[in-house]
């Protein structure tokens, strides 16, 4: 699946640890920014989505902190058109505030990150580690690294392990599909019809929280190809690759309909992809259905 490092010895492995700890340490400031910057700014991000003041502040905070780490060579984010570079070896791609349209109703939100050995745009098999934070009732962090997935509680930016081997439960329970039913393709609609008789609908509008439900209860999350938008909504580099790395490391599968999301080599930094993540069997059936 993905690359792994000899994490105990290499300098790169130390940088990976430093990046993860720095992101954790930045979360109290991000939580404050979410509260302070609830109002909307009049801007759009490089893929044309509304950009909130909180999105911009979270991006600024992570850019400053992550680029300040010695071994980090570049910072890319959903909120900026170009990659920001410096000297170093590892490359960070982030969605600083995922699910920010949930800010208005005060619902789930988070941060997604991928640590790559090559500068984005690049293939997901170049990931060395990936993770996400949820700013929920508690702040939690899930990190995939060296084939293992851990969940932490963050307190004042410090990590405390609560599960040192997160795996996708064998018996799936939940599903969450984005896009309106009327915008789905006929093939996806018939798959969804099948799934809705087997699983319980849990869709929160923030991928971080919806993916965490799949990790917790088993099931499938998708933002599929739409009739009017075959490329779907979510971005390869900032959302697809990191979440695929996490799900695959936890024993699940990822797909763009044909192949693992990690196989996608985006032409552009902000390329989008249809995205399906969950238990093996559910993804196998999805791929067979939408062929
Ligand atoms: P964002 O990164 O701009 O916040 O958008 C991504 C979010 C995902 O977290 C979520 O799965 C999806 O957009 C929800 O979209 P919708 O509101 O169309 O259901
Ligand atoms: Mg996002």
From TrEMBL:
Gene3D superfamilies per UniProt: 3.40.190.80, Fructose-1,6-Bisphosphatase, subunit A, domain 1 (3.30.540.10)
Gene Ontology biological process terms from the UniProt entry: fructose 1,6-bisphosphate metabolic process; fructose 6-phosphate metabolic process; fructose metabolic process; gluconeogenesis; sucrose biosynthetic process
Chain sites annotated for binding Mg(2+) 2: 95, 98, 239
Residue ranges of every copy of the Fructose-1-6-bisphosphatase class I N-terminal domain listed in the record: 21-155
InterPro entries: FBPase_C_dom, FBPase_class-1, FBPase_N, FBPtase
Pathway: Carbohydrate biosynthesis
Binding site for Mg(2+) 1: 78, 95, 97
Positions with a binding annotation for substrate: 98-101, 203, 233
Broad class of enzyme this protein falls into: hydrolase
Major subcellular site: cytoplasm
Keyword entries, A-Z: Carbohydrate metabolism, Cytoplasm, Hydrolase, Magnesium, Metal-binding
GO molecular function: fructose 1,6-bisphosphate 1-phosphatase activity; magnesium ion binding
Cofactor names: Mg(2+)
Protein EC: 3.1.3.11
SUPFAM superfamilies on file: Carbohydrate phosphatase (SSF56655)
Recorded family membership: Belongs to the FBPase class 1 family.
Assembly: Homotetramer.
Record protein name field: Fructose-1,6-bisphosphatase class 1
Organism of origin: Haloarcula argentinensis
Lineage of producing organism: Archaea, Methanobacteriati, Methanobacteriota, Stenosarchaea group, Halobacteria
Underlying gene: fbp
């Amino acid at each position: 699946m993905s690359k792994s490092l000899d994490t105990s010895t290499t300098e790169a492995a130390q940088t990976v640890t430093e990046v993860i700890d720095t992101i954790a340490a930045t979360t109290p400031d991000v939580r404050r920014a979410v509260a302070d910057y609830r109002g909307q700014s009049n801007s759009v991000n490089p893929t044309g989505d509304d950009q909130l003041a909180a999105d911009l502040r979270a991006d600024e905070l992570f850019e400053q902190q992550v680029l300040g780490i010695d071994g980090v060579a570049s910072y890319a984010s959903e909120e900026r058109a170009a990659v920001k570079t410096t000297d170093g070896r590892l490359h960070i791609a982030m969605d600083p505030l995922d699910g920010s349209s949930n800010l208005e109703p005060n619902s789930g939100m988070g941060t997604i990150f991928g640590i790559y050995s090559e500068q984005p745009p690049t293939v997901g098999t170049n990931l060395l580690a990936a993770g996400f934070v949820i700013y929920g009732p508690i702040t939690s962090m899930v990190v995939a690294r060296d084939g293992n997935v851990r969940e932490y509680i963050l307190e004042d930016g410090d990590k405390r392990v609560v599960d040192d081997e997160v795996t996708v439960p064998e018996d799936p329970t939940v599903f969450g599909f984005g896009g309106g039913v009327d915008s789905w393709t006929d093939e996806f609609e018939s798959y969804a019809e099948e799934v809705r008789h087997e699983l319980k609908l849990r869709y929160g509008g923030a991928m971080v929280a919806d993916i965490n439900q799949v990790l917790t209860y088993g099931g499938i999350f998708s933002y599929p190809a739409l009739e009017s938008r075959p490329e779907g909504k979510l971005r390869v580099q900032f959302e697809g690759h990191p979440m695929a790395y996490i799900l695959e490391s936890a024993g699940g599968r990822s797909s763009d309909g044909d192949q693992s999301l990690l196989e996608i080599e985006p032409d552009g930094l902000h390329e989008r992809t249809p995205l399906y993540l969950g238990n093996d069997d559910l993804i196998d059936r999805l791929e067979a259905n939408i062929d």
